[in-house]
Amino acid sequence: MANRSMRIVAGGIEVPADDDDLDFHDMASDAFHDDEDDVPASPALRASQRLAQVVLERSGFLAAHSVRQELGVPGIWLMECGHDGWTNTVVSTLGKLLRGLDQYQFGKGFSPDTLVRAIDVGRHAIVTRDDQDEEFDDEARDFTLGTFDVRIGTTDDVAAIVSEHYGRNVQWPADLPPHGMPYRALDYALTYAADPTHAERLVRVQIEHEERKRSEAMRLRAEERAKEAERNAARKGAKIDILRPTSPRVEDLAGYGAAAEWASDLVADIAAYRAGEIGWGEVDTGALLVGPPGTGKTLFAAALAASCGLPMISSSFAQWAAAGASYQSDTIKAMRLAFETAAANLPLLLFIDEIDSLPRRGASSRHDDYWRPIVNALLELLDGTLRTEGIVVVAACNDASGLDPALLRSGRLDRRFEIGLPDAQALAKIFAHHAPDLPSSAIEPVATALAGSASGADVARFAREAKRIARRAKRPIAGSDILQVAMPPETRTAAVVWRTAIHEAGHAMAYLATGRVPLAMSIISAGVAGGYVEGPRETLTEQRLVDLEGMVLPMLCGRAAEDVILGEASAGAVGDLERATNVLAAVEGGLGLGGYLTSGGPDRASVEARIRRVYGEALMMVIRHRIAILDLARLAVERRVLGEDALRKFANERGLA
């Protein structure tokens, strides 16, 4: 009896046949006798149930059940029902008339073990079959006491119920037998129809509606079978593309930090392996790239393949899952195909994107039985592949926190690299790659403004849009085109922009006046910040009092510039004052450089006195360099962003650096 299933129809509960953790008989009984405690000794039956009672008595089932009940021995019977609506009517009627009876539907996955359990707990059971189900087989018939056919109801039986309802003799149509009516169709008709003719029409309407639903369901099933056949055909002919990237190479890329250094070493190791100088066991063959979308992880893998002179397979969990109908086995088959293709085309780089789509084993009890075999299969494949001479595996993800730890163990993806958003220097190189006709003077301010907030993919988009602007104007691409698409338009008033420029110029001058060049200065509004100055690359100091106060001075020079040049300061320096207060509070409270050697909370008065003294130095610095600050502010308003080179040039012209 293979390929059959059990379902408990009463109450609409469905349970898989092989779930040993569920007590089918308790569930069947609860569903079958849902309101058993409320059932009176002579239960009130609906019209359709009275009709079913007549048929059940005529079939002999009620008598057979009574005999077994008197013997105190459970019985199991088969029941031919016809239309599934009539099955539901018969089941609901038995639920009203009898106690201690479970019902199961014969179909795909059905197992007689379920019935054995029913007998073990002393319960009667019926196994029903609808006309669209497969026939009861010999095993089912041998296992049960007998078969009862409840399709024997006649139109005379229906006529008797209808006649009783309307109080006069009624002839019921021969094409509307009981076993052909949808569930509760007769009840609905007798409730709402004013006469027998109207009742007949309502029954026919419900039959037509059920037929339409059945036809639509059959159509959808046929479509799904056709789609599944197409997917199966596609899987049988599935082919993994072998890519052969030649450019860009890793050495052409910017912004990859430690990953680029590892890639350079790998290129050298593979060259040494090919020359016979080292064995494959000395080559680093597994790495994980972690970073937000758009940071160029796929591009890095392709560039690595190009630099190593390796063909490449680019795969992902999404591709594996799409290879079938989202079944576990289909996903594993697609995964194996990728690894087997790699092993058949040595040497090769296998890239796996979206590896964080696979959750760690045991992370959640829900669906763990689905994911665990997939993760196990991947671990098995990685072990086999990374031990195969000639295969390098690079995986990528946005978030590695949910990865199974076993993926990152030694010998698998044990080299991990964070791929962050590029800094200004890297962005400038990426801009130069995508827009080689632009001079560095046009690229630098944009790269400076976007450092840490734009990805390589963003830069590629900016370059495409800028080139489109230039094409429409029938001219070469210009720096203004990049500025137009990459930088937000200025929406603040001229007075606010000017105050921002003075403030940031004051910060920048604090560095320039001491011979240090900031990395960037911007007056572009970003969130709550109206602009910023990125200080020079600091070296470690001796952490003396003079060093700490020297750290605070540039923080206060923005407010000081507003105070001296514009006549009054604004609340825009609140962040600067907070940072300065934190440093000087540490001086007074815990670093032993203030009025106390003991640690403890700082005295506000002493912190205030110290910050006012440093602020006085800031005011004097601004007064000394007032003209230079004004010039720098005007330049900032004109360009909006000044990079390190522009600031160094400004300082050199004024003898500051």
Task: Write up what this structure looks like.
The chain is α/β, with parallel strands linked by helices. It contains 24 helices and twelve strands. The strands form three sheets. It has a five-stranded parallel β-sheet, with helices on both faces. The protein is elongated, with a radius of gyration of 40 Å. The relative contact order is 0.06. Residues 1-42 have low confidence and may be disordered.
Structure characteristics:
single chain; 657 residues; alpha/beta; 5-stranded parallel beta sheet; 4-stranded parallel beta sheet; disordered N terminus
Shape: elongated
**Percent helix:** 40-55%
Q: N- to C-terminal separation?
A: 91 Å
Tally of helical segments: 24
Radius of gyration: 40 Å
The major beta sheet can be summarized as: 5 strands, parallel
Could you give the order of strands across the largest sheet? 6-7-8-5-9
Instruction: Report the uncertain regions.
Output: 1-42
SSE-based structural type:
alpha/beta
The average pLDDT is: 83
Could you tell me the number of beta strands? 12
Percentage beta strand? 5-15%
Topology diagram in text:
Elements: H1 24-32, H2 47-59, H3 61-71, E1 76-82, H4 84-97, E2 101-105, H5 113-120, E3 124-130, H6 138-143, E4 147-149, H7 155-166, H8 185-192, H9 196-236, H10 257-274, E5 286-290, H11 297-308, E6 312-316, H12 317-322, H13 328-343, E7 348-353, H14 368-386, E8 391-397, E9 415-418, H15 424-434, H16 440-450, H17 456-472, H18 479-486, H19 494-512, E10 520-522, E11 532-534, H20 545-565, H21 574-589, H22 604-624, H23 626-639, E12 641-643, H24 644-653
Parallel strand pairs: 1-3, 1-4, 2-3, 5-8, 5-9, 6-7, 7-8
Antiparallel strand pairs: 10-11, 10-12
Helix pairs in contact: 2-4, 2-7, 8-9, 13-14, 15-16, 15-17, 16-18, 17-18, 19-20, 19-23, 20-21, 20-22, 21-22
